[in-house]
From TrEMBL:
Keywords: Cell membrane, Membrane, Transmembrane, Transmembrane helix, Transport. It comes from Priestia endophytica DSM 13796. The chain crosses the membrane at residues 113-132. This is FecCD transport family protein. It is a multi-pass membrane protein.
Amino acid sequence: MAILPCIVLLIPFALYKSRYLNVLNLGDQVATGLGTKVEKERRTLLIVAVAQGESSVSVGGGIAFLGLVAPHLGRRLVGPRHERFLPVKALIGALLLLVSDTLARNILAPSEIPVGLVVAVIGAPYFLYLLIRKA
């Protein structure tokens, strides 16, 4: 129930504003030339992102690698268009957390491994791959 306002209000609003994210990716001058109020949209989208992040962390705890790995995987799967990228990123994050939680509970049963550790073990090799590929 604690995250319900975020799901009901902020996620649909972020999906509605996804076209502005696409325009802002083009740069400030181009976005202004296309009629976007850059500072207003940037401020609004920043507030929405912070509210979504704080509500997720307040419920799920700080699982750092999840917020870093899911966007990179989502962008590689569907490309840079935010109307497709945002839902895919959320689904990848949920799937990664579900797999990590399942592994954390079952690897050393009946004791448990911290979920953040399992997410980091899954996410670290992908970041190493990204570093090697960019170099």
